[in-house]
Design a protein that fits this description.
Number of helices: 4
CATH architecture: 2-Layer Sandwich
Radius of gyration: 17 Å
Order of helices and strands: EEEHEEEEHEHHE
Strand order of the largest sheet: 5-6-1-8-9
Distance between the termini: 26 Å
Strand content: 15-25%
Structural class: alpha+beta
CATH class: Alpha Beta
Helix content: 25-40%
């Protein structure tokens, strides 16, 4: 009998509920450009893109001890930094929260679910909005945090070189340096 196991690429032994900053990238299913377009280096959100931004911004209201840092919606993906403050997160209003701290995976799952439901309603469609899994990186120090913030803020300016752009025309050395860090994962 052939049993296939999905290999986790998470940082081995790392507690994703502990305090810290986490850089995440979440891509649409089949890299479909659903959220707007980049025009002259500026991201122009459509209604679906505004839904994504709104859901992302509202998650700290749902999860205590969580804060957002830099964030950008791109045509077919989002980049953001989630910061957990305090020892572990608790889901607001969840009586079972004491049994286990909320993890980065819980937050990403909530984001993907809530945004997909709202986008599918808006666009009168069904089916997946997001690809399975996401990319994450544990931010190790302030220098790394500053590099990631800069990458997020300038991402629309470099859309023609972005690895997620279906019409990519080149490669960005900065992007390759950022993503070649030894703690990047895709789950």
């Amino acid at each position: 009998m052939n049993i296939h196991y999905r290999r986790s690429l998470r940082l081995n032994g790392y507690d994703y509920a502990q305090s810290g900053a986490y850089f995440v990238t979440i891509c649409t299913q089949n890299h479909e450009c659903l959220f707007g377009c980049v025009d002259d280096g500026e991201m122009r959100l459509n209604d679906a893109g505004r839904v994504v931004r709104s859901v992302w911004q509202a998650l700290p209201d749902r999860f205590s001890g969580m804060e957002w840092d830099a964030f950008v919606v791109m045509p077919n993906h989002v980049h953001g930094i989630a910061t957990f403050v305090g020892a572990g997160l608790a889901l607001i209003g969840d009586k079972g929260a004491a049994s286990g701290a909320t993890t980065l995976g819980d937050v990403v799952r909530a984001f993907k679910s809530l945004s997909a439901i709202n986008i599918n309603r808006l666009l009168r469609r069904s089916g997946p909005v997001w690809q399975r899994g996401y990319y994450d990186h544990v931010v190790r120090d302030n220098r790394n945090l500053d590099r990631i913030r800069e990458y997020i803020v300038t991402n629309p300016l470099k859309w023609t070189l972005d690895r997620e752009n279906p019409q990519r025309t080149g490669a960005s050395p900065e992007e390759d340096d950022l993503f070649d860090l030894d703690h990047d994962t895709r789950v």
